[in-house]
Amino acid sequence: MFRRMRAGEFPDGAKVLRAKIDMQHENMQLRDPVMYRIRRGHHYRTGDAWCIYPTYDWAHGQSDAIEGVTHSLCTLEFQSNRPLYDWYLEHLPLPGDQPRQIEFARLELTHTITSKRKLKQLIAEGVVDGWDDPRMPTLRGLRRRGYPAKAIREFLTSIGVAKTNSRHSIELLESFIRRDLNLTAQRRMAVLRPLKVVITNWPTDETGQPVVEHFEVANNPENADDGTRQVAFSGELWIEQEDFAEVPPPKYFRLSPGREVRLRGAYFVTATDVVKDADGTVTEVHVTYDPETKGGTAPDGRKVKSTMHWVSAPHAEDATVALYERLFTAENPGEATGDPLDDLDRNSREVLTGAKVERALADTAPGEVVQFERLGYFAHDPREPMLFHRTVGLRDEWAAIQKRTAR
Fold first, then answer.
1. Where is the Glutamyl/glutaminyl-tRNA synthetase class Ib anti-codon binding domain (predicted)?
2. pLDDT for position 396
3. Tell me: the pLDDT tens digits for 360-377?
4. Phi and psi for 258 in degrees, rounded to 5?
5. Rounded average pLDDT over 116-137
6. Where exactly are the structural domains of the chain?
7. How far apart are CA 349 and CA 331, in angstroms?
């Protein structure tokens, strides 16, 4: 009858092959479990050659033994399957020593799901781009987002291997990522939402062209061996839109009319005027600079309350930047409704085109992670030049959580 099953004489679901063990066994997994079932489905390797397929439990131990696996590591839900795993191995003429199945707790993170079935659904519905989408909790996704392998290993070592299921804060993982990148990532200046700044008293050369200066800036203050680089500075700059407010709110210390700020490594500037479009939106800010404050310090000792990053407009490169929020809004996706996809944030990615970055970023290697000063850590896409994925922000959310817990 089994040969007839193999030959395709019976329809799907009509017959199964079972292991005759004990229908009264206290472990339900050993109550004559199914080994083969009839299922006509196109296989990506063997095509339509087979119409019977083995169950997971039947194939699991055999595959391990044939491939020389010594320890089969499974999550806790397979603990009741272990006696069946062993039973099959003991009753089959397989090569080598018998493998062992060992169970451990599944690694779960807040705001994350690890169900491959649900993750595949996200891909099928176009919520994410694929298994290597930077929002995916896959190794390919984490690598593309710029998570260092060393930081992931240190995180896993810190939480250890457990026998009880638990959910760990994703902020803790990000804390390890941030700590590693702080030591290794090169610093660069980038403006994600650019606003033009014109220095009205900036000098010109004998031909009437604006003077170009270069400032020496450290590549990584945490590692002197990374050296320095020369950054161009001119009379036209890009700054972040949020770094200027025509009517500043309380405790706003960045650039606003009449206020003086420091441009990172360069000069003090004071806003004097603005240019607006037909809708009343500020498109350009005019400032004056103090040439005595070169390097970012004033000879008279006066202080400013804000230091801003910038990019020289004539020397800027264009880049595309992808910003990511949590893929799931709830700490435990699906806890309220039973379906994790009910907590899905379908707007978890924002892609900014036309970001302005310093020229050194054009030499960033594919996959390399750099720190955009004041903004966070960003990974250069391994395939698409001048596309940067935000790896993690600068603010240590885990430290803030620990402080609140301590109170």
1. 185-290
2. 75
3. 999 999 999 999 999 999
4. 85, -5
5. 96
6. 2-104, 105-189+310-407, 191-305
7. 18
* Whole-number pLDDT of residue 166: 85
Question: What angle (nearest 5°) sits at the alpha carbon of residue 68, between those of residues 66 and 74?
Answer: 95
DSSP secondary structure code for residue 330 in this structure: S
- The pTM of the full predicted model, rounded to 2 decimals, is 0.85
Model confidence over 43-74: pLDDT tens digits?
999 999 999 999 999 999 999 999 999 999 99
34 Rama sector, left if φ>0, alpha if ψ -120 to 50, beta otherwise: beta
CB neighbours (10 Å) of residue 48? 10
CATH superfamily of 105-189+310-407: Glutamyl-trna Synthetase; Domain 2 (1.10.1160.10)
Mean pLDDT of 280-301: 95
Name the residue type at position 305: K
Q: 245: which 2 tokens?
A: 């407010």
Residue environment code for 382-406, b if the CB has 16+ CB neighbours within 10 A, otherwise e: eeeebbbbbbbeeebbbeeeeeeee
Taking residues 185-208, report their average pLDDT. Answer: 96
Which CATH code for domain 191-305? 2.40.240.10
Q: What's the distance, Cα to Cα, between the start and end of the chain in Å?
A: 70
Place of tokens 């803030």: 400
Place of tokens 């710029």: 146
Q: Is 193 exposed, middle or buried (0-12, 13-18, 19+ CB in 10 A)?
A: middle
Determine contact, residues 327/134, Cβ cutoff 8 Å: no
Per-residue pLDDT band for 407 (boundaries 50, 70, 90) equals: low
Q: Residue 131: what are its φ and ψ, rounded to 5°?
A: -65, -20
- Helix axis angle for 56-66 and 82-90, nearest 10°, is 60
Positive or negative: CA dihedral 120, 123, 129, 130: positive
Split at pLDDT 50, 70, 90, the class of 403 is low
CA dihedral 194, 195, 199, 204 (to 10 degrees): 50
d(CA 107, CA 97): 29
